[in-house]
Amino acid sequence: HGDSHKSLHWHSRTTQQERFKVLTRIGDLHSARILDIGCGIGDFAMFLKSQQITVEYTGYDIVSDALEIARTKCPKATFENRNILLKPPGAPFDYSFSSGLFAFGDQPLFEGILTQAVDATKIAFGFNIYQTPIPTFFSPDQDEILAFCRTLPVSDIQVVDDYLTDDLTFFLYK
User: Fold this and answer.
1) Distance separating alpha carbons of residues 63 and 158, to the nearest angstrom
2) For 65-107, what is each residue's pLDDT tens digit?
3) 144-155 pLDDT tens trace
4) Half-sphere exposure (CA, 13 Å, Cβ side) for 78?
5) Could you report how far apart the first and last alpha carbons of the chain are, in Å?
6) Which residues pair with 110 in a beta bridge?
7) Residue 137 CA to chain centroid, in angstroms?
8) For residue 7, which of 1, 44, 103, 123 is within the disulfide window of CB 3.0 to 4.6 Å?
9) Which of 90, 112, 92, 91 is nearest to 101 (CA)?
10) Do 118 and 172 contact (CB within 8 A), yes or no?
11) Which residues contact 10 (CB under 8 A, 6 or more apart)?
12) What is the CB neighbour count within 10 angstroms for residue 160?
């Protein structure tokens, strides 16, 4: 689907934008160094720019074609073809994010990425989880997510559930 929300299996551009708005509630992102894990075609970078939130943006993804689109859309951002489970980030970022990354994953992927993201973050890591009974989606419930998050080296966990009926966002603060 090229440069479209459909490339990333989003229902609509509107729901994607709602998820991005919630992620920006994590803290003051202005001038922050951020990492977008599973950046896809760079839509979160474009969203931040549209909101006039100037950041030092780095996006990681494992899909080369998506990264080519992202680089074209966001030439000032940094995009890397990287799997953080195999090659963790070096220097820590202020904030890290994952939006829509886990829907087609599983528990080991989820736990591995959360562990690496928290390790790579100085202030907070934000991520969302699609809540659905459809068995083809990875969709742990809030209690399962919180149980794992409590095993990580974080000082505070916040859950946001006031934006879409089938989505949860978590903020893990260091």
Assistant:
1) 30
2) 999 999 999 999 999 999 999 999 988 999 999 998 898 889 9
3) 999 999 999 999
4) 10
5) 37
6) none
7) 17
8) 1
9) 112
10) yes
11) 16, 100
12) 16
